[in-house]
Amino acid sequence: MTEVLLTVGTRKGLFIGRRRGGRWEFDGPHFNAQAVYSIGIDTRGDGGAPRLLVGGDSLHWGPSVFRSDDLGASWTEPSRLAVKFPKDTGASLERVWQLHPAGPAAPGVVYAGTEPAALFRSEDGGETFELVRPLWEHPTRSKWVPGGGGEAVHTVVTDRRDPAAVTVAVSTAGVFRSRDGGGSWAPSNQGVSAVFLPDPNPEFGQCVHKIAQDAGDPDRLYLQNHWGVFRSDDAGDRWSDIGSGLPSDFGFTVAAHPHRADVAYVFPINADADRVPAGRRCRVFRTQDAGGSWEPLSAGLPDGDHFGTVLRDAMCTDGSDPAGVYFGNRNGEVFASADDGDTWQQLASHLPDVLCVRATTLAG
Fold first, then answer.
1. pLDDT of the chain, 364 residues: tens digit per residue
2. Backbone phi and psi for residue 89, each to the nearest 5 degrees, phi listed first
3. How far apart are CA 235 and CA 166, in angstroms?
4. Neighbour count for residue 271 (Cβ, 10 Å)
5. In terms of pTM, does the model score above 0.70?
6. DSSP letters of 132-165?
7. Where are the alpha helices (DSSP H) in 188-243?
8. What is the rounded CA–CA span in Å between residue 67 and residue 243?
9. Contact between residue 83 and residue 126 where contact means Cβ atoms under 8 Å apart
């Protein structure tokens, strides 16, 4: 069985699991008592261990980005703040919400999404970052309104065919796209509803929770909104509703299968005012036809009433075939499937709140 690395960021540190021969072993917490909101796993190296990037959030020292090139055996923190707002912005970093290594066409490039809502770019593998000013200075910015979780760039999607194509999701401003490497940005929310606004179809202002990119077609994107699950087949120009068949179309997370086209996963939540699993059942829902239909996946998951909410970055897939699918919840539980989501096992319990999970396969 393929060896897998699973990283779990929690409210009180990072836990690292490895699956060897079908058996899981965990260590941690790394960064004890620090909230870990973001993890990036950079597999673009020379075939050795991937680089781990972690956004830690010390209540005493403030937020920072740490990196490890030996699977967490040791960590390096930059001598100066890796992510820092220029003085003229008048802003200070609250936390790093996203660490996203770009594709192989952009070696060394890593994006960081932050709160306050900004995008930073690194060209040295995540050691230093520079503010992407055109997004920070976007003419709509003065009208962005923080959501319940703050105002943040929480999702970054890059195009493996074109390193100049970057898509971000901003809470609560919606989707913005650049086709010139961040030199200019345009709202890309046509078809995404904002039921909480007087105008439910604004140019921007949607509360997008997460975006995932299809394995087969990079122009196909899946979007979990604050009410609504959507799909785009043209890289975000237009979106269509694919929430029919789900017990609720409110939720936080969406993940795509790493190999199979048209396959994606969501974890429905009852409502924005009742943030527990839909029907109080611990179930992942999978589509195998790009949102045309959905099926519940619960074999091996807890029966009966369940209250573990899955946050926007707390579900992921790995590179295995069949794919591993993973999620953690605010109960401190972590679950895994080694067969595309058909069956599940519980890997951990009684952890602090799970904020994010990331996984990859390791070279044998």
1. 689 999 999 999 999 999 988 899 999 999 999 999 999 999 998 777 899 999 998 777 789 999 999 999 999 988 788 899 999 999 999 999 999 999 888 999 999 999 999 999 999 999 999 999 999 999 999 999 887 778 999 999 999 999 999 999 998 899 999 999 999 999 999 999 998 888 889 999 999 999 999 999 999 999 999 999 999 999 999 999 999 999 999 999 999 999 999 999 999 999 999 999 999 999 999 999 999 999 999 999 999 999 999 999 999 999 999 999 999 999 999 999 999 999 999 999 999 999 999 999 997 6
2. -75, -25
3. 10
4. 11
5. yes
6. -HHHHT-TTGGG---BTTBSEEEEEEEETTEEEE
7. none
8. 38
9. no
Q: Amino acid identity of 131?
A: L
State the chain's maximal CA–CA distance in angstroms: 55
Q: How far apart are the two ends of the chain, measured CA to CA in Å?
A: 10
Q: Quickly tell me which residue has 């790009």 as its tokens.
A: 290
CA of residue 84 relative to chain centroid, distance: 21
235: its two tokens: 């890289």
